Here is the input.
Amino acid sequence: MRVKTVTILGSTGSVGCNTLDLIGRNPEAYDVVALTANRNVTELASQAIKFNVQYAVIADEDCYQELKDALNGTGIKVTAGQQALNDAAQLSAEWVMASIVGAAGLGPTLSAIRRGATVALANKECLVCAGDLMMQEVKHHKATLLPVDSEHNAIFQVFDFERADSVDCITLTASGGPFIKFSLEEMAEVTPEQAVAHPNWDMGAKISVDSATMMNKGLEMIEAYHLFPVHQDQIEIIIHPQSIIHSMVSYKDGSVLAQLGTPDMRIAISYTLGWPARIDTPAKKLDLKELKRLDFLEPDPVKFPALRLAREALHMGGTAPTILNAANEVAVLAFLEGRIGFLNIARAVEETLTQFAPSPLTCLEMVHAIDDEARAVTQKIIGRM
Ligand code: NDP
Here is the structure.
């Protein structure tokens, strides 16, 4: 059996752990080259030992010594810092899982892309903040990008890339998050604990809050625009509270192709890990008789303004999605830390967007500059809330 070499950027997170769960079920099929984390030394060290990796990399340099001590005598090389993350992505693993959360994942993801690796992309924020530029890098370096986000993974499975003009539209399904039945008054009072308790998916804190505001679906709309050959107005969003249909492609002949499954990220991850083959997963099998019904409804634009903001940013193009993403990252963190209320997340993003004149995004240095500038503006706005 051929052994696949893999690196996981963000191995201690929800996607990272699910990826290692799949690898651990068939360990002789994989050789794990490098694992990375931000600050979670305990989990990273335990993963590194279990999977006998060559490199364990911690982004926060203050954690270096602790990781070094934890891996003393194992022979595992320990590195730290931003450049070390980029170096880890450059090591010769043929498959790289990009599962760092936020724009912080852009540099390492680009490092893997620039050596033409096969990159399983979970880190949607990097595609939102640097979309066209990142896709140019993918093309230029002949890298392979495999979508991990369950919606994009679903579309990837049923999209006819050979005949893209036969596609009428793509429809991203959204669970609607935990507050779908809440009134605006109730939403104003929700706590971070309520917001991270997603009804269907077990995910990291940031994406869980994004799901609750539905900014997640807005980010996914921008992500879909870059991943698939469709126009902006060919991307639709529908709420499907059971999260069984992960997304669909409507063709001009009236056929609609969807991918279905129980809400378990290991299905989407496995599709990218085994690609082009399919591999077994322990995910619960879909039983439609047990499920009995599938529901669908329109998102409420008043309760979920983040969707409108994301669509406007996509239409504006240039720096707008970069600003949207940066502002959202800052606002979500402020909400998680109890500094602003839930409804103020979208307000902070909207106010940030209004403070920038639209301008084209011409190079990656500009992404970092605009990202920094937008974060500073959002911090100020939050300070006044
Ligand atoms: P988590 O918060 O669970 O994990 C994030 C990972 O990134 C951790 O390993 C974390 O390390 C690391 N990390 C965080 N900040 C930094 C930083 N500044 N520099 C380097 N590494 C960092 O996130 P998820 O796994 O939930 O999500 C990861 C990405 O995948 C997100 O972009 C999300 O939108 C996307 N995604 C997630 C899904 C899910 O099911 N969770 C589904 C679809 C997409 P540490 O543990 O040390 O903090």
Notes: The chain has a mean pLDDT of 97. Residues 168 and 251 are 5 Å apart (CA to CA). DSSP finds 17 helices and eleven strands in the chain.
